[in-house]
Amino acid sequence: MSVGVKVKIWGDYALFSRPELRAERYSYDVITPSAARGILEAIYWHPGMRWQIDRIHALKPICFTSIRRNEVKSRIPREDPLTAYNGGKGESLFLNTKSDIVQRSSIILKDVAYGIEAHFEMTEKASPGDNPGKFKDIMSRRLRKGECYHQPYLGCREFPAFFCPWDEGEEHRGGESRDLGLMLYDMDYSNPEDIRPTFFRAKMENGVIDLRNCEVLR
Amino acid sequence: MSEPIKNRYEFVLFFDVENGNPNGDPDAGNLPRIDPESGYGLVTDVCLKRKIRNYVETVKEDQEGFGIYIKENVPLNVSDKRALSYIGQKPEGSKDLKKSDPDADKKILEFMCRNFYDIRSFGAVMTTFVKEHLNCGQVRGPVQLCFARSVDPIVSQEVTITRVAITTEKDAEKKGTEMGRKNIVPYALYRAEGFISANLARKTTGFSEEDLELFWEALINMFENDHSAARGKMSTRRLIVFKHSTELGDCPAYKLFETVHAEKLPEVQFPRKYSDYKIEIRKDASIPDSVEFIEKI
């Protein structure tokens, strides 16, 4: 049994990192299904349900900008454990010296808005008292009242996503069709020891990416 | 330590700069950050977080429970290893730790959150642990900040300065003074927005009422101890907090943010001081009464 929802999300900036360009981050052209799922989960999630994204509507033109920031270098080489035990003057992480920060640029999306069509499926972790109607009601109420577990974000936490229920007829941009190439679909968590990415060939037609029957590549 | 917070919050913060550079852009030779299309000034979230950390560090001076994880001059792994020693395990054996103590990652997480104010509020990525198959790698904190943007487009001005002290002797033979550059914004009022999730506070990091008070205090005073030649005069001008009556919130965040309007006065052409602006809160009927508007300053 599956139940659908329609959500509009928007924000000033977004960054859906391409996994192949991660050091200097470069955003995909549109939101990935996994980021959209993350947004829905930030609003409402329960172990007894699994969100599945059906369609993504891009409601605004794709527009990039760039930002360069001082960031902590990815991983600090392992210190001799003994030095670490005894040598600690305080309990801190190294950030400010030249050797451990790097300047990284990110190419980010500007002024985005999406209509997300999704549904959820029940999982075996649902307790006997759970049913799709209950989950659906909770989700609808949260969308209406703006309630959320934490404020959802567009790829990175500094780019918050605002959300409300979406009526498809309203402000659909339509028009643009392009092949967006291979895009991240989601991470495959079925084996927790070996989490793998999955991809799909994203085609936007009239501003809509249809994920309902897409082939997921591993 | 007091209880984790029980309410969702949003906040709008206004701060201004006078003849200074609030946040340099490394891409543009340290010019003030600017949105190239619209000309609005930007200050990144991480820039503000750094100042909050610095403030807390200054005020609390590493008091128990108020350590700052991300600061200068101590290597990263020190703290991670301390967490391991806290749960009674030599770091060498931590690969098998998960087998002997299934709750080890929870304990480490708890330890880190209890000791470090910035992890409690902003979260942290603890990569070392992931490598050792302990899954407390990513901690999301309840406080989420976004980029601050100026209320009006900014103009950045280059000021050329001279100095009489020459660095090298060789140069000193050739010339008497050296030229330098400073980039300043004559005046700008910036607006930053943020979110605080009570759920993440309760379920993950234990961000408490006491921490929240310290956070507001840090937002109000973060520029007071951050004066430097580059910054000019910066100060927090207004802090408007929206307190929801529940953990999940009563109202969408964007509606609350839309109630706060900042505008320069109609007769002002070039804003140069805070009093050239008017900040108003316009509550409309769609905002439920259960959301409390608190004006911290």
The poorly predicted ranges of chain B are none
Q: Provide mean pLDDT of chain B, rounded.
A: 85
Strand content of chain A: 35-45%
How far is the first residue's CA from the last residue's CA of chain A? 26 Å
Task: Specify the number of helices of chain A.
Answer: 3
> What is the distance, rounded to the nearest whole angstrom, between the alpha carbons of the first and last residues of chain B?
26 Å
Q: What does this entry show, briefly?
A:
The complex is a heterodimer of chains A (218) and B (297). By secondary structure, chain A is mainly beta. Chain A is built from three helices and nine strands; from the N terminus they run βαββαββαββββ.
Describe this structure in words.
The complex is a heterodimer of chains A (218) and B (297). Chain A is mainly beta and 218 residues long. Chain A is 15% helix and 39% strand. Chain A is built from 3 helices and 9 strands; from the N terminus they run E-H-E-E-H-E-E-H-E-E-E-E. In chain A, strand 8 (196-205) and strand 9 (208-210) form a beta hairpin. Chain A is globular. With 297 residues, chain B is of the alpha+beta class. Helix content of chain B is 29%, strand content 30%. Chain B has helices spanning 45-60, 77-86, 97-100, 104-115, 117-122, 127-131, 169-174, 198-205, 209-221, 253-258; strands spanning 9-20, 24-25, 31-32, 40-43, 70-71, 123-125, 138-140, 143-145, 148-153, 157-163, 178-196, 233-243, 260-264, 277-281, 292-295. In chain B, the strands form 4 sheets. In chain B, strands 1, 4, 8, 9, 10, 11, 12 and 15 form an 8-stranded antiparallel beta sheet that branches. A two-stranded antiparallel ribbon of chain B has the order 2-3. In chain B, helix 1 crosses helix 9 and helix 2 (77-86) packs across helix 4. The longest helix of chain B is centred in the N-terminal third of the chain and has 16 residues, at 45-60. Chains A and B meet through strand 3, helix 2, strand 4, strand 5 and strand 6 of A and strand 5, helix 2 and helix 10 of B.
